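Researcher: Re-running this chain for the archive, since the previous output was lost when a drive failed. Same request as before.
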Amino acid sequence: MKKVRHVLGISGGKDSTALAVYLNRNYPELDIEYYFCDTGKELDETYDLLKNLEIQLGKKISRLRAAESSHEDPFDHHLKLLRGYLPSPDSRWCTLRLKLAPFEKFVGTDPVISYVAIRGDEDREGYISKKTNIQSIFPFRKNIWSEEIISKVLKNEYIPTVSDLYSEHSDASNSSLIIERVRREISPKFTRDQKLKQLLDFNIPLFNKVVFNFLKSFDYPVSKLGSYSLVNNSDCIEKADVIKILTESVGMPKYYNPLKVKGTNNSGHYFRSRSGCYFCFFQQKIEWIWLYEQHPHLFQKALEYEKSGYTWNEHETLMDIIQPERMNKIKDEFLNKTVARKNSPLLSDILEDYENPGCSICSI
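Model: Regenerated structure tokens:
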């Protein structure tokens, strides 16, 4: 039987970095392999963070690159293959070719548990591999299991099995109370989410223990483990917790450092909100201005990729964005939005405006 591998992808962003620190501190017995999918178009701040994180973890972070034999950066290599067709929200070939393909090559056919940095205050799954040898676990959430696992465990047909497991692992004093909840069938009046919430609210480690033992009858990577320390996890890590973890360890990524911005009538702060390629098409317009003002050479490189029919933004080019009148308008629009929320001084609140879950797949 192949050894089960534990892997965690570092994007250079705050959540995956915090998860690496969190697991290293709390579950050192897990022999986690850390990796970073390098597109060749990352910010220097991202590479700096990786170096600091390696020191913190006492472990190397594997650099995965698509088209390893090419003399070009992975992005340029594939852009040439696609004849200059730039990626976009509707055609995210960069994610598929530069992130997912190297990752799946890295894990091969080994049974793998992939740790995903979805926080407890987020309502999404993120990237879930279609490969059966890769299982996603979410340590920051009350429910560490994927949608697929929960759907299976809470099926009405498995109520007898799950009920027996609860009877086996529950204390005699509270067994009857939880068994009653377990045996209630899912219906239009009692949804799966309602049942899941009841079971988690009752006892998270007990629920995890039941799921872990339930999965022994199926072919999942976690079912191949004799024991799994994460079943005792009952934490729910939210945004403020992530910031605390980082400030106490490697620090926040430098691109989160707020910079002064002055508009026509107001002033405030702005910063880049994401890791990943410096020309990420998910950037807000204010972030393109951040790039233009903080890394003009990178903005120039991004501008050079644009040509007739292929631009980073659907309705305007980068040259349009940096026209003085247009820049002032973008800053004013941004400031009006932040002033409307009273321009909270808390970074955890400021980040709320910036995050775009649409690009979460790039965090692997």
